Amino acid sequence: MNIKLNRILLVEDNEDDLELTIDALKANNLANAFDIARDGADALDYIFCREKWSERDCINPAVILLDLKLPKISGLEVLKKIRETNETKMIPVVILTSSREEQDIIEGYSLGTNAYVVKPVVFNEFIEAVRLLGAFWGIINEPPYQK
After folding, report:
1. Which residues, other chains included, contact 33 with Cβ-Cβ below 8 Å and sequence gap of 6+?
2. Per residue in 64-78, pLDDT tens?
3. How far apart are alpha carbons 133 and 21 in whole angstroms?
């Protein structure tokens, strides 16, 4: 069976969480279909094809897995910028964070996140969570048409 994998943008600054997420993507055969941004500014550069990302194929990712606590620009600010722009406002964004703070959850949804997922502490649960996210958003979900 030939499955087309759409790109996933992983926005994560924590080295351990990044490594776990990459391991989970690899374990679920999604490892060749993602890009990494290590801070909020880098994520916005990727999304808007600027700076080091200016040469990339400027097709929106199938989904953005977005941490909240990022250097330079917070995850919530990144989400706000994505939703303010016509070309990017339809990109599915899943907040993938360790924060269970009610204010973060409320603000994330009010800014337009598609889902808010708290990172499980147990490795096997984390692998399963990433597998489900990657499979749904990277394979199953049909993104809006792009010009």
Report:
1. 5, 6, 7, 8, 25, 138
2. 999 999 999 999 999
3. 11
- Residue 51: CB atoms within 10 A of its CB come to 11
Which run of H or of E encompasses 110?
A: helix 102-110
Instruction: State the pairing for strand pair 8-11/115-118.
Output: unpaired
Which residue type, as a one-letter code, is found at position 118? V
Domains of the chain: 8-139 (3.40.50.2300)
Query: Per DSSP, what are the bridge partners of residue 64?
Result: 9, 93
- Per-residue pLDDT of 46-105, as tens digits, reads 999 999 999 998 889 988 999 999 999 999 999 999 999 999 999 999 999 988 999 999
- Our CA angle for 18, 34, 42, nearest 5°, is 70
User: In this structure, how many other beta carbons lie within 10 angstroms of the beta carbon of residue 9?
Assistant: 20
Instruction: Provide the whole-model pTM.
Output: 0.84
